[in-house]
Amino acid sequence: MEKLQAVMIAVGMIVLGASSVRADADPDKGKKVFARCSACHATTEQNKVGPGLLNVVGRPAGSIAGYNYSAALKGSGLTWDEPTLDAFLKAPAALVKGTRMSASIPQDQDRADVISYLKTLTAQ
């Protein structure tokens, strides 16, 4: 029952988060906002305190080999699409109770810009 409740909360957060992903997102501004994230996350495959974020958009959560994810994130069943990233970056522990990610991006436009930037992080 508790797991069902957690899933329902996650679905609700994703649905609510979908409305805040903005069409006017700017990846250049997102790169600047992302500078705060770079202490823990690389824009490559390199794992730091957090996992590397190359090709993160579209990737299942908790799926990078060699990174020690929390059990909560590994078992979340999430895929990092725009609405899920938006909800997670807004309030990580609200979406995935037990995640080790504690930093958030409270401003809607900043999150949209960061997600737009993350979409550019693809292997060439």
UniProtKB/TrEMBL annotation:
Gene3D superfamilies for this protein: Cytochrome c-like domain (1.10.760.10)
Domain of life from the UniProt record: Bacteria
The Cytochrome c domain, residue ranges: 25-122
GO molecular function annotations of the record: electron transfer activity; heme binding; metal ion binding
Pfam families: Cytochrom_C
Keywords: Electron transport, Heme, Iron, Metal-binding, Transport
InterPro entries, A to Z: Cyt_c-like_dom, Cyt_c-like_dom_sf, Cyt_c_1A/1B
Protein name in the entry: Cytochrome c
The organism of origin for this protein: Rhizobium lusitanum
Phylogenetic placement of the source organism: Bacteria, Pseudomonadati, Pseudomonadota, Alphaproteobacteria, Hyphomicrobiales
